[in-house]
């Protein structure tokens, strides 16, 4: 029987670019998205530091062009990672703020706050955003909130999941459960459309957000949600489409004006904001125009991009999305013709090329757009939070059977277990020894290895030698890197 928690509980989608919070409303028997103090239902996952104050959300994003080096975004792309990771090194080349290697290779973000230089880890930055989301909920509910279900990309590693729990610990928030984002979206869709279906339905969730991409194939029958397979890329999303547009227009500006703005953080921030707006416009316009006054050295910049050019410069990313779709169906041993519903989640799922590729792949099947792609994950997280709350009685009794998205393996003395082609591309989670095994001919010893995954996706490994009876166990944690509240 699942543990139940006392007190108010909320669902939080802690996104790369935007975050969203929701709560189960018992009187209406449904989840509700909570708007922030600006009246917006999503909040930028952005934190800015000035000589006077710290800004969060809309206020931080609105001043980013004037204060690029001390406005931090994309913190989720650093959570649970090492400074030496190639994706981190690639991102550093694009970010205006400074990232350096800290203790044990932990990425540290350098900002100036109240005229003092400070170093922050990604978890600390994300904790500021998480605090903001809790404050938004508390202002609406007029009561303290101590419990939350927080969502993560399905393809988050063990260390990234642990780090997300740490974000909650920092702000004193009890993270009741870490829920995979596409699974949360399936909850939202199932409650809205398929909660009472008697026949088994295969639901394919396509979740393309601001910084991460996940797909999952689930079956829904009699209120049971069973995840058959999941696939994804924790470094593919709207930010990457924006960055390619920025590179395209940097070259355009250079060609027209013989000025290179690639080393100008303020100009790049203004250009990126314009590119994000143009990208959204191309979901309903054939041509989008960018106009920025005095972009650099007093030079005004006016340019346009049509939908075909946008699709061309991002073709590689679109193809990567579709490879992931195929991989998920292969892992589930399911033919695409057996998929009943294709559900779009995440703001970047609005891109028309994405929708066209999906519809073509699924042989013209109508895509499900009935749930708000920006809010579905938080909506589903609120449902899960209600299911784990003692005080709520009228939430539908949904049952979740999830899968672990990444392969697990073990190696004896020697190289790391080889799932990917190169050992260096695999992620070593931990190691330990078993002592007291008596000498014996090769192959005569047998040891039993048990992998145990809890509901948050946290891994425990135990080993027992069947001859000597000796055993050992390890729970994978962030050890000395682990943060406290």
Automatic annotation (TrEMBL):
Superkingdom of origin: Eukaryota
UniProt keywords, alphabetically: ATP-binding, Nucleotide-binding, Stress response
InterPro entries assigned to the protein according to its UniProt record, in alphabetical order: ATPase_NBD, Heat_shock_70_CS, HSP70_peptide-bd_sf, Hsp_70_fam
Ranges that cross the membrane: none
Gene Ontology molecular-function annotations: ATP binding; ATP-dependent protein folding chaperone
PROSITE patterns: HSP70_1, HSP70_2
Protein name, as recorded: Putative Heat shock protein 70 family
